[in-house]
Amino acid sequence: MCRGSTLCISQTQLCDAWRDCPDGFDEESCITKCPNGGEFRCKDRRRCIERSLVCDGRSHCNDGSDEVGCPTIAAPTSQAAPLKCRMGSRLCKDGRECVLHSHVCDGEVDCKDGSDEQDCGSPIPVTTSNLAPTTTSPDILPAQPVCTSPSVMCRGSTLCISQTQLCDAWRDCPDGFDEESCITKCPNGGEFRCKDRRRCIERSLVCDGRSHCNDGSDEVGCPTIAAPTSQAAPLKCRMGSRLCKDGRECVLHSHVCDGEVDCTDGSDEQDCELLCKAGQFQCAHGKKCIDQQQVCDGKAQCQDRSDEMDCFKPTKSCSHRCDNKSRCIPETFLCDGEGDCVDGSDEEGCGETLLTHWDSWHRRMRRRISLNESNPTLVQTCTSPSVMCRGSTLCISQTQLCDAWRDCPDGFDEESCITKCPNG
Question: Are 394 and 316 in the same domain?
Fold first, then answer.
C-alpha cells in the first residue's frame, strides 16, 4: 500500500523507475548497487543480503526473491525422491525448482520452463501452504488439493489466503480480489455487517442458529440461552422497560425511538414518526396522543402514566396556581423559559431581569417536588425511572444522562460517560 494513500501496487512496481504512488513512495530507498560487491540484491531493490543466505531454504528478502530459482542438488530421476517445496511456494512444471506463490502470474518469468506464467487467465490447481504437493515421478504433476476451510482462493491464482486478509486494506491477491466489494457501512443502520465486510444481513438473522454470512460471523459469540418453548413462561421485563417484538429481550423505555437499535429485531426503532397535533400531549412511550386538558387530571390516560408525572399536588401554601386552579407550581418554575402550566400563565408578564443563571440548567427538564402540608420543606422524591442530581433536589430523565448537555448543576449527568466500548 502506498504511504498515506489507499492505493495498492504490486511488488514489481517497486523501484521500477516509474512513479506509481502519489508521493513517489515506491521509488524511495531503492538500491541500484549493493555496497559490498559480493552481496545479493533482492528483486524489489530494497535490501541486500549475504550470498550465503541465498537459497538456504528461508526467505530473507521481503519479496522472497532470495529463494527463487534455487538449483537442486541433483536432477530428479524416476528413482529419486521428488523435490518438495517449502511452505508458501509451488513446484515448477519441470519439477526442478520451486517458485513463491506471490511470483506466480505476476508478469515476470521465474521458472526456467516459464510455467509460473502459464494458464494465468483461468483457475489453476491449488497448492496451499498447508497441503504439500505429492508426486511419484518428475513427469507427473502435483496433486490438486484445494484451499482448506476457512481459507479463500484468490481469483485466477493458486494463492490461498485467510479470511482475516479479506478487506483489511492490504492487497494480498495478485489482482486485488481480496479488497473488492468491501462494505464500510451497511446502507440500513439496523443491519449487521459480516466480519469479512462482504455482506450485510438483518439483525433478526444474527444468532438464529443458521449462518447467513459467508464467514459465519453472524453465529459467533452468541449467548447460550435456551430457546423458549411452548411450556416456558413468557419473558417479563422489569419496571421501566418493555419487551421487544420477538419476545427474546427487553429494552429500556428511554431507549425506544432514540435513534439507535437496541432490540435484535430492531423493533425499538419502528413506528417512531407519530406526532401529536396542537393542544395534544404525546405519551412518553407507546406514542399515544391525549388531550392536553387530561394531563395532570389525577387519572392516567397514558399506559406509562407519563401524563401524571411531574405533577404538583395542591397544598395550603402555593406559589402559583394555574389551569383553573387545578395545578400548583413552585416559584422557581415561574418565568424559567419553559411552560409548565397548560394555560401558559407561568410564563406571562416575565421580564428579562427575572432570568438568572438558575434557569440555564433548569431548561429542558421538569422536576417532581412534593410539598408536605404540615411542613412546607421540599421533599426529594424522583419518580422511577427518573434520576436525582447529586446534592440537589433536581430530577432528570434517563435520556438526559450522557447526552452531551449539562442538566445537573454540578454536571453529574455527564460524568463517567462511555463514548466507545473497549471491546468493539
Answer: yes
CB 40 within 8 A of CB 66: yes
Give the span between the Cα atoms of 226 and 164, in whole angstroms. Answer: 31
The whole-angstrom separation of Cα 298 and Cα 126 is: 78
Say how many domains are in the chain.
2
∠116-122-128 over CA atoms, to 5°?
Answer: 60
* Whether residue 316 is found in the same domain as residue 304: no
How many residues are there in the chain? Answer: 424
Q: Are residues 314 and 376 in the same domain?
A: yes
pLDDT of res. 31 = 84
> Across residues 36-50, what is the average pLDDT?
85
Is the pTM higher than 0.90? The answer reads no
Alpha carbons 175 and 104: distance in angstroms, whole number: 12
Q: Give the list of residues 6+ apart from residue 165 with CB closer than 8 angstroms, or none.
A: 152, 172, 178
**Residues 384, 407 within the same domain:** yes
Contact between 66 and 55 under an 8 Å Cβ cutoff? The reply is yes
How deeply is 87 buried, as exposed, middle or buried, from its count of CB atoms within 10 A (0-12, 13-18, 19+)? exposed
| Domain around 294 | 275-308
pLDDT digits (tens, 9 = 90+) for 89-108: 788 888 888 877 767 787 77
**Who contacts 360 (Cβ-Cβ below 8 Å, separation ≥6)?**
none
**Domain annotation covers residue 330:** yes
Instruction: List phi, psi (to 5°) of 55.
Output: 60, 40
Residue 210 pairs in a beta bridge with none
DSSP annotation of 90: E
